[in-house]
UniProtKB/TrEMBL annotation:
It comes from the Eukaryota. PROSITE patterns: ELMO (PS51335). InterPro entries: ELMO_dom, ELMO_domain-containing. This is ELMO domain-containing protein. Residues 164-325 form the ELMO domain.
Amino acid sequence: MASKATQRNRHTNTTPSLLSFLNAKLILQKKCLFSTSHVPSSVWPHHLLPHHQVSTTSQPLTPLLRYHNITYQVDEDEIYWRHRKEDEELEWTPNSTHLISQLTQCFTNAMVGSRSWIGGLFHRTSTKRNNDKFIDYPLSPIEEERLQRLQERVQVAYDETRPEHQEALRALWVCSFPNVSLEGLISDQWKDMGWQGPNPSTDFRGCGFISLENLLFFARKYPASFHRLLLKKEGMRATWEYPFAVAGINISYMLIQMLDLYSEKPRCLPGSNFVKLLGENEEAFDILYCIAFEMMDAQWLAMHASYMDFNDVLNATRIQLERELSLEDINRIQDLPAHNLL
């Protein structure tokens, strides 16, 4: 059994012994069989699976999110601190490809159902939180028109045979890595952005074309923020970081669920208030996406999260967004307190 000092070491370069390898298989199998509710499906690319890291906290904290000299308070009940204490922690190296492959397969096997909705596993416990009470309200003509257009966007599936979808994907690459030539729409280069594999189109099945539009809007509207998050430029980063692109798809899915966009009109308070913002600014959803991405990354850093904490981080982000969208004095998307993160 590893010493306590070894257990605390998150940045070891020691090659795992055969015993550690066998223990790894047992722990991974146990997590696949008994902890699938905490497994973030098959969303982690092979190249983004470095050393194992488990985040433990003995008591709830109230961290501050600090971005660009802005201090942003995180309430205690917004954070779901997970207390995971393993008898043994595994020591990984970048060359432990067999273990990494098995871990990725474990995530894949955790998917439920015939269709792998990327965001479904993360949010199935919280999608009905704000829909218990129906909120009826009138829509102005401009609000109704823009809500309908947004709902139509949500229904568009990504189609890799459509030229406009292909061009949008190429444009995303150019915005992300302007000095690197793209070899093709199917290429291992896409893994550098945080896609599951060489073909990003397989990831878009979880949320459709709007998730690509959101990423592209973020890259074009706020390029500095986009690249800072893409390249993980700020903060004490985890050894196992979240994959940028797939995290973006999950944020799109989370917003669609939170705002109740699959209904004829949103039935929850955050959703109904959002429609007012949409009436004031047709780009409100895309801007809210950028805000949510910034907030998610800030939560990630504040919670000292690792890959297994992504569900908690995203739920904490959703709770904070719901609170801000429920404020009475929010008349524009820029009035959201978290807009200062951009």
